[in-house]
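Supplementary Methods, section 5.1.

A reviewer requested that the exact input to the structure prediction be made available. We therefore reproduce it here, unchanged from the version used in the analyses.
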Amino acid sequence: MTDNTHAIVVGNNGGPEVLEWAAVEVAAPGPGEVTVKVAAAGVNFIDVYHRDGLYPLKLPFTPGVEGAGVVTAIGPEVTAVEVGARVAWSGALGSYAEDRCIAAGDLVEVPEAVSLDLAAAVMLQGMTAHYLSHDTYPLAEGDTCLVHAGAGGVGHLLIQMAKARGATVFATVGSQEKAAVATAAGADHVINYAESDFKDAVEEIAGPKPLSVVYDGVGADTFERGLELLGRRGVMVTFGNASGPPPPTDALHLMRLGSLYVTRPTLFDYNATRSQLEQRSDDLFGWIASGELEVRIGSSFPMAEAADAHRALQGRATTGKVLLDAAG
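The structure derived from this sequence is encoded token-by-token as follows.
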């Protein structure tokens, strides 16, 4: 067992106050597993959904599905990863920890040109932006898209990827500060929803139903107005619930609006194979190393202060990525 290590533990579902910093033991890695000294863990809305019970998990648990660190021990049958390797992961629960045991197959190696903080910052949100723009609706020249929360972790990266693929990008934000972030990322038109209705603002610029696709991680507050902006056979991609789950909609409603499509994708289904995981991480790390993709780390909290990180995220008081520093 590993002594003197700590992790965030959720014993009961609830608000940020249920995130408890506790002494824990980490078992020696079993077959196919490794132990990682965590450098940083990403904070994401899925962590909030796990914490409050919207996405139920067996209690108690350690939250966090994304992080990066250094391999410190290797279990039997592990051949592809060595002690000392710099690695990152997404999708494997338990990242809010100083040390963790994880399946070697969930890891990707991080090139020396990419810091562990940046690697931790893109493993979920970066890969999400990648599959949204490259696979769920593969953007191309001539497409027009709307990215909600354009200054957030996914939004900031998605704007950049959408522009790289030749799309015209509308983005929504909640403040002038966030508008500057979305504009710097390359958005063609930035709408502050605190000042104007985003549907009216989009149509004032581009006319009725101008969009090919809406990328909506906000949910309840934006879903229906987003549908009304889609052109014939347009695609609503609802991938998050920051304001609550989107309302139910029926097939006839989608027909009347122009034979629309609605999809609720997950990273798990778009990284279902090892080759998909490697392709996306290779692209992301390559773009970061070359300077083609800017990763904005907006806030970093000591891991023991995960509750404050959740409050900031839910309060929409952040831009870019929120990280937990395991050494902090």
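The chain has a mean pLDDT of 95. These observations are discussed further in the main text.
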